[in-house]
Each structure stands twice: as structure tokens, then as C-alpha cells.
Protein: Baeyer-Villiger monooxygenase
Organism: Streptomyces resistomycificus
Amino acid sequence: MTEHEHVRVAVIGSGFGGLGAAVRLRREGVTDFVVLERADSVGGTWRDNTYPGCACDVPSHLYSFSFAPNAHWPRTFSGQQHIRAYLEHVADVFRLRPHLRFGSEVKMMTWDADKLRWDIETSSGRLSADFVVSATGPLSDPKTPDIPGLDSFPGKVFHSARWDHDYDLRGKRVAMVGTGASAIQIVPAIQPEVARLTLFQRTPPWVMPRVDRAISAAERRIHQTLPLTAQIRRGLLWGIRELQVQAFTKHPNQLGLVERLARQNMARAIKDPETRAKLTPDYRIGCKRILLSRDYYPALARPNVDLVASGLGEIRGSTLVAADGTEAEVDAIVFGTGFHVTDMPIADRVVGADGRTLAEAWKGGMEALRGASAAGFPNWMTVIGPNTGLGNSSMILMIESQLNYMADFVRQLDVLGGRVALDARPAAVRAWNHRVQERMKRTVWNTGGCTSWYLDANGRNSTVWPGTTSEFRRATRRVDLAEYDVLRAGDRENAEVTA
């Protein structure tokens, strides 16, 4: 990267959101852009998460770009290595390599109100951009709890998203802290190898069986020869999930049947009533993300697994002490404790028009117009922004909708002409988020009786979209200029002279 490179668009991150933005920019005829990536390869969360058993809980044919179908998915639910390979394939097929800047972590980016551009400092140099697309993703920075005594633990410690493959777990006493989506995949993957596995469960999840199977060679040939068959498959997967949305957003009581199915799934493997009681949630299914696994409960039933139905409270040497006083001697600790979702670290590095960071602007909770634009941060948008998450479908659908919005944003800048920027009006941001939060009141995520990572420190759901993916696509089809202030070069100087 040259010292003072200037580009029309800078994209931050090379996961699904960043690569999707790059493809869409090229399709819009924009070639003057870079993709800034802190690592040395593309893939985002699917590059970083390499823990044993890592796989997606969304069917493969729905967890891929509509403009880049893959007829060769090996399984109905693909593993991490296949998804990462798919993203590498997208980078090659759409000729994105020349735009990629690896080893370029964004340290700070500041809006220049005079030049109407973003000045960006990265670990590999400086550059500026007229427009920034932040696609760092909510599952990029691991969160490790502050446990008293952790610093003095003599054994091995790592987070599931930073798996240490050089450390051999075979024959070790291992503690798994957390029972989220990663943990229910890790537990059955490592259980046969470790001497003893102790699972610290603060809150039990609802777990449904994952109906996973190999996709036959014949199926793959049909999809390759007749692409329409893959489109139909994707459409069916999408349609079923669209029909489920109302139960999550308007009628949570309808989820009782699903709870019974989840209890039956547990009962098939867990015969001990006391253990079943520990594993049974006390909140409505769907309040936290519903997890999918056929082998989680069978692994917990194995004789070398101990379930501690209490969070980890402190560490005394190699002894882990739960909040209820239960103790366990371990050689290694694996944290499956999630990510900085509602307090994304990138927000501390974005300085807007009034000198405030995005983190300061979002101190009371994340808010963005149509999940994309924050007031006071001109010509900046985020992919997978506030209230764009899903509880039952594929995030790729939401990403593609936001890419539609990004593409129209660029078109509007072209139509307006000259040095120009669009800044979301505070009133428009407030109105959009008021509508979202009003709809959120009826959802299972707010009424289900749980505390989840969907909620921020203020107890506000700033993560999930309370509607269907088709509703969101309609809402983000075009940029409404009435929701933005149009900034032109020279406006600030003229205002100062007039004053």
C-alpha cells in the first residue's frame, strides 16, 4: 500500500460481507476499491474458527451467495473447511485478488469534513477513501470473561475462535466453558480423545437434531447440469424459514411444539432425570438461538464427561471453581464464550464528523438507518449492522439485501455528482429504530425470559431483525435521499464565512 493512496471505496473485512461488497462493486462498474483485511487470507469467521467439529447450522445451499451458487457442496450442512474454500473460490472467480490488502488491520479512520473523505490508518500504511463499507462482522473478536485467578492458571487456555492446534488434548483433563453454538460442536468432537471433560454450563441451550447427510454425487451432477434444480432447492429452504418467522416475531406461544421436540431429542440420549433437569432450559425456545446437533447429548452421557450446571466463578491454581462451589482439576481451559457483538471493537476506531467515535455515538445502544448508516458518519455504512441478525435463517440473505442498499448508495453519489457525501439524518435513524424496537416488543427474543447475546448492556435488543428476510430486502432496495443530509465540498467553509 502506498503512503497516500486514495480510493473511491474501502471495504473492511474479507468474510461474506466484505467479499460480497467487492463483487457487487465490480458489478456496478466500480473498480477503484480495496478490501482491507487484517489477516493473511480471506474467510472472516470461517477462516478464524477452526475448532474440532466446526460447521454451519444453516443448510449449505442457503448459506451461499445467490450470484455464486455452488453445486458441489459435499454435505447438507457444510463444515468450516468447505465454507472457507467456497469463499476462496468466490475471490478467484470474481477476480477480487488485485483488490485485497492482507495484513492491513484498520487502526483508525477519521472523517475529513473539508475533503469529504475518510482518512484511514492501517497496520500497512495510510490511505483515504470517499466511501467506506465496514464488513468486520459481529463474530470476529472473541470475548473471554474476566475470571478471578485466570492469569495464574498453570495449564493451557484458549478461545474456541483461536484454537491452538499445537496443543494435544489427548489424555488431558479439559474444561469447556460455555454452551453456545461452538461448544455443542466442540464437546462431541473432543470427548472421545480427552481423559476427562468438564462442561461449565451457565445456561442450558435448546438443542434440536441436525438433519445432516452427505450430498450424493448424483445430486451434485444434477445441480451442476441443471442449475435450476439448485435454485429450487435454495428457494424451498428459504420459503420454509420465511414461514417460521411469525412464530418468533409475533406468536412465541406457538413454539411450544418445538420445545416438546427438543425435549424428546434430549430424552433419547439423556436417561438420568437429574441430568435432564440440568439440561432443560427455563425460557421459551427461540429466545436464545436454537442449536442443532445429533451428538451433543450423547457425548454428555459418556462416563468421562461431567456437567457442572453453574458458571465458572474463579480459578485456584489448576482447580476451577464454579459459582455453586463445584470444583474440577483440569489441564486446559477452552472458552466458548462468544464474541463482542453489541460492543464491536471497530467502533472505537471510527471517528465521525463531530469528532466522536462510533462507540461513543452508540454508548446508549447501536442504531443505524436500515441497519447500515449511522448519523454523523457520512459516506459510511456497515454490513451486518444493528438489528440485521436472524434467529432462524441465513445471514447471507441479509447481507445481499444490504449490498443492494450499498449499490444504490454509490449510484446516488454518482447522480448527485462532484465531491458529495450522504449523512443519515438523526431523525431518520431514530424513526427507523423506533419502528424496529416497537416490533421487537412482541418477539420471543424480548419476551422469552432469557438473557442472550442479542441484548446489549442496557438490555436492548440491537442485534436481531424482527421480520422476514423479504421484508428487509424491500426496506433496503433503495436509498431514500429524504433520510439523508447531502454534504457538498465547500459547504462547511461557506457556513463558517456566513457565521
User: Anything to note?
Assistant: The chain is about 30% helix and 20% strand. The mean pLDDT is 96. The first strand starts at residue 5 and ends at 12. Residues 5-141+344-498 form a domain with the FAD/NAD(P)-binding domain fold (CATH 3.50.50.60).
